[in-house]
Amino acid sequence: NRQExxxxxxxxxxxILEQDFQxxxxxxxxLPTGWTTNDVTLMDATTGPAFFVHNATTANAGSYxxxxxxxxxxxxxxxxxxxxxxxxxxxxxxxETPSMDFSTALNPAVTFDIYHDGNFGGGxxxxxxSTDGGTTWTQVNYSGDVDGLFPLQEGFWQTLVITLFxxxxxxxxxxxxxxSDAGSWASGFGVxxxxxxxxxxxxLTLDRTxxxxxxxxxxxxxxxxxxxxxxxxADSVKVTGILSNTGLGTLTNARLQVEIFQGATxxxxxxxxSTPELISLTKDTVSVVTSYIPGAIGSYSITGTxxxxxxxxxxxxxxxxxxxxxxxxTYARDINAAQAFFQLEAGDFAGNLFDIYNDEEYYGI
Length: 365
Description:
Layout: E1 12-19, E2 36-37, E3 39-41, E4 47-49, E5 52-54, H1 56-59, E6 76-80, E7 93-96, E8 108-115, E9 125-130, E10 138-140, E11 158-163, E12 174-179, E13 188-199, E14 204-211, E15 228-230, E16 238-245, E17 251-262, E18 265-271, E19 275-278, E20 283-289, E21 298-307, E22 319-327
Parallel strand pairs: 15-22
Antiparallel strand pairs: 1-13, 2-7, 3-4, 5-6, 6-13, 7-12, 8-11, 8-13, 9-10, 9-12, 14-16, 16-20, 17-18, 17-19, 17-21, 21-22
């Protein structure tokens, strides 16, 4: 199944705060000491906290928020407006950090993972900051969105980095990860692996390795972003990587190196074209069509590694992997999830996005 590049440390030179929510005890559980959330009105008209510590199982207790599992029993802070005891409105809910001292911070930033799928019309999510003990709050914009909001990504965790340069030298800084369900039903928002500190000069992260070509303009022959494919339909393995510059300096010749394995045996290597420049706190989605075509049924995996000319401060988050299966069954298209965008061109058929969750049975679309 698919695995995310997760627990990104943001390559901080100095760490001010770090929280991965791997608490002990029953789930859903209380937030770690010092972390707070607001209360919401529950289905029985009482009040209770909006955010709890969840894993993928408890987050989906209402069967409408299937958060992707990372590793085994990973825990995170999550708000779910559907599952009991809530089944309630979450117009604006948040999980808030303890107070942090930025008195000596030079290039402060926060890196964190979010699960923000917009399921069933769920609303926006954004970052807020306070420098007066939590009395007033202002939005801290994410640079990748015109309104400063967090991006949506269906079915995957994603890692974001947001600079906090304007708060350097201040002794009391607090952050809120805020979300609204926009009056919708059956949606949620998750936060994990929060790290606050000073950014390194050079830092490259591989957010994801994807089995498929995300840069092709329209749907082609062979498999594309599938976890299972019939042998008779196998084609050249296509790989995409999402590269992030999580440091202060510009990276040159950033690229994705790919190694394909059949079982435990390496069967092919390839590399994407170089990105001339990847400026600070930007992303690039790069793809390569390899020359390797699977010739036998079995399990395959792809390891992607992000590299650049500059020396990375921490290379532990430069690699990630994805796996897929080749089957002899003609109609074995997938065992986890399948999704594809069709672009209408002259003379071509057009379709739309479809998702199949791995806890549902299906026979056709």
